[in-house]
Specification:
The protein has a domain at about 1-150 and about 185-215 and about 260-275: NAD(P)-binding Rossmann-like Domain (Rossmann fold, 3-Layer(aba) Sandwich). The chain is about 40% helix and about 15% strand. It has helices at about 10-20, 40-50, 65, 70-90, 125-140, 160-170, 185-200, 220-235, 265-270, 275-285, and strands spanning about 1-5, 25-30, 55, 95-100, 140-145, 150, 170-175, 180, 185, 210, 220, 240-245. Helix 1 packs across helix 7 and helix 4 (about 70-90) runs parallel beside helix 5. It starts with a strand and ends with a helix. The chain binds NADP nicotinamide-adenine-dinucleotide phosphate. NADP nicotinamide-adenine-dinucleotide phosphate binds near residues 35 and 100.
């Protein structure tokens, strides 16, 4: 199958390339070849390449920077996905797009389901929600996969930052009152491949929006403890971890305290579920690539 993958060096994109390139005709376009803010070029590229499936793994993911550059965030996270959805629909090709737990305000006491009303606290969250709505409005075949707390062995993420700081510092304060599921980009890619295979076999699919994060839950502090334990198992000396409240670690963008996503709809409709977050961490650390 001819697949167009947008985003070349991103965490999820890299893992998708690893899994898809031997099985499909995969065309990968990074920012160097195609700036998603350039709508005319984006349309032209899709029309010229005529993919059978589009996967959008590109996004403006700098959550704090987005507060001071909302135009860029909306161009990439909201306008471009809408254009991709239009072009995909014209080709009758499905569009797989990733979104985020940050569309919610985190005030719910339990895990969020797809029907819960979004209420983003940040520019990033608002721009991603607008992207979801633009895709849904077009109404073509689409999967919007909301994931959370993505990390891998590449790029900028909590795992790599913690691995560095835990070995540099003697004490490290980490937010303990935001709860969610750290999700390895490799788990996201593997589950995406399962969705593609399911669709190819069935030739029918339950398109729409799905929660798509690792199972289980922890806090950023709990995630840091798990990362520290892995370093210690390798004989490394690590910083002493101190739990703090979000209010003690102010950031330009507000983040939800509850980021938990209930992923049972994905399992019910597609038979796909992501691994537990802790198993995902171990798999990530044992899969250097
Ligand atoms: N990271 C998280 O914690 C998280 C949490 C929830 C949901 N998500 C969602 O999951 C998806 C994948 O995230 P990720 O962590 O893999 O992201 P990532 O590592 O930040 O990668 C994003 C990619 O998008 C590309 N990009 C940014 N602006 C672009 C533009 N104008 N034109 C073309 N490409 C552009 C970047 O290119 P450059 O390399 O050139 O900058 C980068 O390769 C995104 O939809 C994100 O919103 C992420």
């Amino acid at each position: 199958m001819k697949i167009l993958l947008l985003g070349q060096h991103g965490q999820v994109s890299r893992e998708l390339q690893w899994l898809l390139e031997s099985r499909h005709e995969l065309i990968v376009l990074g920012r160097e070849q195609l700036d998603l803010a350039d709508i005319d070029n984006l349309r032209e590229a899709v029309r010229r390449l005529q993919p059978e499936l589009i996967i959008n793994a590109a996004a403006h993911t700098a959550v704090d920077a987005a507060e001071s550059e909302p135009e860029a965030a909306f161009a990439i996270n909201a306008v471009a996905p809408g254009v991709l959805a239009e072009e995909a629909a014209a080709l009758e090709a499905p569009l797989i797009h990733y979104s985020t737990d940050y569309v919610f305000d985190g005030s719910k006491a339990s895990a969020y389901i797809e029907e819960d009303a979004p209420n983003p606290l940040s520019v990033y969250g608002r721009s991603k929600l607008a992207g979801e709505q633009a895709i849904a409005t077009v109404g073509g075949k689409h999967l919007i996969l909301r994931t959370s707390w993505v990390y891998s062995l590449h790029g900028r993420n909590f795992l790599l930052t913690m691995q560095r700081l835990l070995q540099e510092r003697e004490q490290l304060s980490v937010v303990a009152d935001q709860v969610g599921a750290p999700t390895w980009a490799g788990s996201i890619a593997a589950a995406t491949v399962q969705l593609i295979e399911h669709w190819q076999q069935q030739q029918t699919a339950a398109w729409g929006i799905y929660h798509f994060s690792a199972r289980g839950e922890t806090s950023w502090f709990g995630f840091a403890e798990a990362i520290a334990a892995q370093l210690q198992a390798q004989g490394k000396t690590v910083a002493q971890l101190k739990p703090i409240a979000t209010t003690e670690y102010p950031t330009p963008a507000r983040r939800p305290l509850n980021s938990r996503l209930d992923c049972s709809r994905l399992e019910r409709d597609w038979g796909v579920r992501l691994p537990d977050w802790h198993d995902g961490l171990l798999e990530c650390l044992n899969t250097p690539r």
